[in-house]
């Protein structure tokens, strides 16, 4: 009986909430403001939603049980264990890498482009994973470092004519510097303070980029950013002054596909590099210290670990990865503006980390791919994209806070 | 009086007006934080929804031919407060209660999801364009030397000051005198102990979200009447500002939130007056970073002690 009461109550609340937002629409008519009721189609949506709330509350226990019973997509079990893994791993990695390199030549240009975007998100996800997943510091302004990387390359290339390959490490360095400067004062703060301060920092960077028109071009952004070159060979139709193009050098016909594939290959190499570095770091004392600090800060301090230095290193390295991704993003787009670096972007990257499973690299890679491809597949639902995105974040936290592929750590047990 | 002084007085009036609404929103953050130690990330969106509801009600009543201004504002206020409180309650029920007792990051992330959901819910149902309402309360006083600079103090600003003051007074009485208020204070001292002593802490926590949302709705009504426009994206910035105000005053302390809100409002008005106005948000966040740097517990907050 209590359950029925609860369900009716929830449905009533849902009715009130829906009627006064979906049910009435504000409209400007000349200078006066008018309200008019919703269309029959919207009313059917409202009634459907209320019925859903009613039923889900009525059968809440069964639904929770069903979710508990679903064989959780425990992808981590697919990975072989122990000795077998040690033998297989190099072959497996080499195989994946070869596939990644051959694949773009077999598919359409659009899918290669999409894959490049997914690789950028993988890079960002892996970088944020160091900060959030490993070190346990919630950074909501991660996109600021991405923006710093992108603008560093764009500005250096525009004002000093530096090439992509020179700017790549400089961008990472600049982002790391910003991470260091921000991290130094704020890393003493507790978790949620840190979240808000980084959020504020992200906004500061965006506002500065938007208003410092003389240098950054303001809301119009920077366009005509140079594309990367292969040992000085350009991928444009006509060579710039004194340059050689790729198709002239090899004596083949010009095709814009080469550029797309080349950008994709750069992204593959960058992601491989990032994964390699992070994996090394995780096995070093510093990486172990990150995780230890996440688990118990007070215990770490009593064991003599320098809390600030450890957090700062995680923050800086995470930021430099975003700088990497940022400069590559600028090179790929050829155009950047502050619009690309809003809070929603930070939220998407955070969602990738959370969805994949905090700390788990393979999970984050999968989540980044899913998050880039799903919106493309569900184009007709594009206006509902962010709504569903928010809802997924809430539901994931409720049913599977550890993510799709929870991080697996080596465990020793006494028998 | 000299011109610069008159100009300064005008900025102080504007700053205190905005600041008092920041204070109302900030109280919602500070009360929730004081009890469960978490940031209610969706609070800014509740404020935005409060603004929309008050616009909807006002436009609806005007459309029905009602002319009595006080009555319209009163009905709008009551409905906005009721609906926004329901939203606040729902946020707690959906995004916080099921996750109580888990890792601290988890409710925060679910609240971010909730905030994105609510913002897009309003975008989808009301459109993403600005909605404007012609000024409801016009007129005001001016003083100063007309040849130098005229300071204006509008009736709208007076209305905001009075409404904020009455709300604060009501809240203070509620917290200090009522049974529920006493339970709230007990919970913020020690949640577990209060629970052991037989207080239904779940109800108290839900109540905190409801009170916070109600105050945010009042701020929503006041600010949207003051500016005359709303859009679905105002919640994000307002939430961030109000959180800054709460931290500035010392999170967990209600007088602190009020003080922080007023200081933030005045600082912003002064920045906008003497520097390019785009940078007023930068100043607000820089202030937040500086406060956390030199006085992490805020102006009126108690320093927190970490224990094993």
UniProtKB/TrEMBL annotation, chain A:
The chain crosses the membrane at residues 7-24, 88-106, 112-132, 137-156, 162-184, 260-278, 312-331, 343-370, 382-399. Keywords: Cell membrane, Membrane, Transmembrane, Transmembrane helix. Its main location: membrane. The keyword Amino-acid biosynthesis does not apply. It is a multi-pass membrane protein. CDD domains: TM_PBP1_LivM_like. Residues 4-103 form the High-affinity branched-chain amino acid transport system permease LivHM N-terminal domain. InterPro entries: ABC_transp_permease, LivHM_N, LivM-like. PROSITE patterns: PROKAR_LIPOPROTEIN. GO terms for molecular function: branched-chain amino acid transmembrane transporter activity. It is found in: Cell inner membrane. One of its GO terms (cellular component) is plasma membrane. This is Branched-chain amino acid transport system permease protein. It comes from Neptunomonas qingdaonensis.
UniProtKB/TrEMBL annotation, chain B:
The chain crosses the membrane at residues 12-39, 51-84, 105-124, 155-175, 204-227. It is found in: Cell inner membrane. It comes from the Bacteria. GO terms for biological process: D-alanine transmembrane transport; L-alanine transport; L-isoleucine import across plasma membrane. It is a multi-pass membrane protein. PANTHER family: BRANCHED-CHAIN AMINO ACID TRANSPORT SYSTEM PERMEASE PROTEIN LIVH, HIGH-AFFINITY BRANCHED-CHAIN AMINO ACID TRANSPORT SYSTEM PERMEASE PROTEIN LIVH. This is Branched-chain amino acid transport system permease protein. It comes from Neptunomonas qingdaonensis. The lineage of its organism: Bacteria, Pseudomonadati, Pseudomonadota, Gammaproteobacteria, Oceanospirillales.
């Amino acid at each position: 009986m209590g359950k029925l009461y609860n369900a009716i109550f929830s449905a009533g609340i849902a009715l009130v909430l829906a009627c006064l937002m979906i049910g009435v629409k504000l409209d400007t008519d000349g200078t006066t403001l008018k309200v008019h009721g919703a269309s029959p189609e919207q009313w059917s949506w409202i009634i459907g939603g209320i019925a859903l709330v009613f039923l889900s509350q009525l059968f809440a226990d069964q639904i929770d049980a069903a979710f508990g019973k679903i064989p959780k997509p425990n992808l981590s079990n697919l990975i072989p264990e122990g000795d077998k893994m040690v033998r297989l791993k190099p072959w497996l990695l080499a195989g994946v890498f070869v596939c990644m390199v051959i694949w773009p030549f077999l598919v359409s240009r659009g899918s290669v482009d999409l894959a490049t975007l997914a690789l950028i998100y993988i890079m960002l996800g892996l970088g944020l994973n160091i900060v959030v997943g490993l070190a346990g510091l919630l950074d909501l302004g991660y996109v600021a470092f991405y923006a710093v990387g992108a603008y560093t390359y764009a500005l250096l290339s525009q004002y000093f004519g530096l090439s992509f390959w020179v700017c790549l490490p400089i961008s990472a360095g600049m982002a790391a510097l910003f991470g260091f400067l921000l991290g130094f004062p704020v890393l003493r703060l507790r978790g949620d303070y840190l979240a808000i301060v980084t959020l504020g920092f992200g906004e500061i960077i965006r506002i500065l980029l938007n208003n410092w028109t003389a240098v950054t071009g303001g809301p119009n952004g920077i366009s005509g950013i140079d594309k990367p070159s292969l040992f000085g060979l350009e991928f444009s139709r006509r060579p710039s002054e004194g340059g050689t193009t790729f198709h002239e050098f090899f004596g083949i016909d010009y095709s814009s596909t080469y550029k797309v594939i080349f950008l994709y290959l750069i992204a593959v190499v960058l992601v491989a590099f990032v994964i390699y570095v992070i994996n090394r770091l995780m096995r070093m004392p510093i990486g172990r210290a990150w995780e230890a600090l996440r688990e118990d800060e007070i215990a770490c301090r009593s064991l003599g670990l320098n809390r600030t230095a450890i957090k700062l290193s995680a923050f800086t390295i995470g930021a430099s990865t975003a700088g990497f991704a940022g400069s590559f993003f600028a090179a790929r787009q050829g155009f950047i503006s502050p619009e690309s670096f809003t809070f929603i972007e930070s939220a998407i990257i955070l969602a990738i980390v959370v969805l994949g499973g905090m700390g788990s690299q393979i999970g984050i890679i999968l989540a980044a791919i899913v998050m880039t491809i799903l919106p493309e597949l569900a184009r007709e639902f594009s206006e509902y994209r962010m709504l569903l995105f928010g809802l997924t974040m809430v539901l994931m936290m409720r049913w599977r806070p550890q993510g799709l592929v929870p991080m697996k750590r080596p465990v020793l047990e006494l028998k | 009086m000299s011109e610069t002084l008159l100009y300064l007085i005008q900025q102080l009036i504007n700053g205190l007006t905005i600041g008092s609404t920041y204070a109302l929103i900030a109280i919602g953050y500070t009360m929730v934080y004081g009890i469960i130690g978490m940031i209610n990330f969706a609070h800014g969106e509740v404020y935005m929804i409060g603004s929309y509801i008050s616009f909807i009600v006002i436009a609806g009543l005007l459309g029905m031919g009602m002319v009595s201004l006080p009555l319209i504002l009163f009905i709008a206020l009551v409905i906005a407060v009721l609906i926004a409180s329901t939203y606040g309650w729902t946020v707690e029920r959906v995004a916080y209660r099921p996750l109580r007792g888990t890792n601290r990051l988890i409710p925060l992330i679910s609240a971010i999801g909730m905030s994105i959901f609510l913002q897009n819910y309003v975008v989808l149902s009301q459109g993403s364009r600005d909605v404007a309402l012609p000024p409801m309360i016009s007129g005001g006083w001016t003083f100063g030397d007309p040849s130098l600079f005229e300071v204006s103090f509008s009736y709208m600003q007076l209305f905001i000051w009075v409404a904020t003051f009455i709300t604060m007074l009501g809240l203070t009485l509620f917290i200090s005198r009522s049974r529920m208020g006493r339970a709230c204070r007990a919970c913020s001292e020690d949640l577990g102990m209060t629970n052991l002593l037989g207080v239904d802490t779940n109800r108290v926590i839900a109540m905190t979200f409801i009170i916070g949302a109600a105050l945010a709705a009042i701020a929503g009504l006041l600010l949207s009447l003051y500016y005359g426009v709303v859009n679905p994206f105002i919640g994000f910035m307002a939430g961030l500002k109000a959180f800054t105000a709460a931290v500035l005053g010392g999170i967990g302390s209600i007088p602190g939130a009020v003080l922080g809100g007023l200081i933030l409002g005045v600082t912003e008005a002064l920045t906008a007056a003497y520097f390019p106005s785009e940078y007023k948000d930068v100043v607000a966040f820089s202030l937040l970073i500086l406060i956390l740097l030199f006085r992490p517990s805020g102006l009126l907050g108690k320093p927190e002690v970490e224990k094993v």
